[in-house]
Amino acid sequence: MKGDYSLLHELNGNKENWKIKARVTRLWDVYNLKNRDFMSLDMVLLDEQGNHIHARIKDAFVHQFRESLQEGNIYYIRNFGVIPYQNDYKIVTNEHSIKFYATTIVKPAGSDNLSIPKYKFEFVPFEHLSGRCDKNVHLTDVIGRVSTIFPVYENDKNGKPLKRRIIKIEDKRKRKIQITLWGDLAESITEDACMDRSKSTILIITSTTVKSFKNQLSLSSTYATKVYISLDYQQDYIHWDCEEVVKNKRTIHEIIKFLEQSKSQEAIFYCMAVVKKVNAENGWHYISCTNCHKKAKTIGSTFWCKGCKKGFSSPTRRYRLELRVEDESGSTIFVVFDKEAEKIVRIPATQVYTTEIKDEDDDEDVVPKPIKNLLGKTYMFQIKINPNNIFTTKQNFTAIHVFEDHAYKQLHHEQEEKNQILPLKRAIDVDVEIEREVPKAKRNG
After folding, report:
1. Segments of 150-284 assigned E as strands
2. Does residue 426 have a pLDDT over 50?
3. Quick count: other Cβ atoms within 10 Å of Cβ 429?
4. Average pLDDT of the chain, as a whole number
5. Helix (H) or strand (E) holding 334
6. 242-412 — its CATH code?
7. pLDDT of residue 390
8. Model confidence pLDDT, tens digit, residues 264-309
9. What is the assigned CATH class of domain 126-239?
10. Which of 45, 108, 284, 389 sits a CA distance of 20 to 30 A from 300?
11. Spatial contact of 196 and 164, defined as CB atoms under 8 Å apart
12. Taking the CA of residue 140 as centre, how many other CA atoms within 13 Å lie in the half-sphere pointing to its CB?
């Protein structure tokens, strides 16, 4: 329990008088695919620990909640049902879902807008999409750079016009996948929005189905699909290679043993560990130069960057988290910096400092609540080993990337499935039949 409400991972079907505090990160209408009758108002709820769950309001009750629920806002919700997830095409990773009753109560959480992250996605790397092809278990979130966007094209389906737009995105390895956006989603993004920016326009598309057409993989939008352009998720554009992770996965004991035996003292390993403590002795953040991001020196009421050789009055605060982590073999300290730390805390360091520390008499040895929420959580850490690791009195390792463990387990499972089936040819640099039916596309890069 946190205060007078429960966390999402604590929910079960044993009672119905639950109370939660959660952000509505996504909200959408669901219609019957055959007759287009309205069925429900659905949403994804996210709590302060980064857990999320799919919730549904049936059509008979929607009028009670439609005006009081807005996407992006945080609410206290109580008196609802918790049931096993029974539908196909799971929206998020959770064994349960929430159903609203006529007696469910929803109240805004007031001015609180920082305690819960704004977004959470479950990105699937392109190389693992074939494991989801034509399966109805999960809907799929993807992220990539826009490489091609086609104009909106209108189909005739059952005597009624249906709009669609085809987009191609690519990952860091230049692998491409085609996505079809249907209905209103086709006009939710424009060619100018995607192509008139830099070449790093990042597109996030949620809740898609994975299909094959003429032995080519493609994605298709659903009622639950949301499209986001250039959110601050560039770090998630970096996906691991599951085979590389398996090959270089080590326990804490094996990493320490490597230091004792290796002559080169340089390597990159992956280690899954649970966060047991946040060391605050050296603080949890640092004051950085606004230009080069390096640590700045405080001189009175101003700041000095040695690297840039200039002073400034308004510094930026960035994370430096010393995490005491543990696995079955031992424990050590992993140090996580800046954006990687922000990715798991889900709130920028400056905002945490402003809202948490200043309210506690500037006691910077206090670990703020959003960072304490990391305790007990398991992550996959990508660790960089360098010669400095053996010339230090306090053993610690720099984590250059951090991934949530459920994503690794999910990908590992899909990799095993992939090895058991004939892989489909990926849609890389291939113009499929549909492209010849639409006007000329705009291409990026």
Report:
1. 153-157, 160-170, 176-182, 202-213, 216-220, 227-229, 267-279
2. no
3. 11
4. 82
5. strand 330-337
6. 2.40.50.140
7. 59
8. 667 889 999 999 999 988 889 998 887 777 888 888 888 888 878 8
9. mainly beta
10. 284
11. no
12. 29
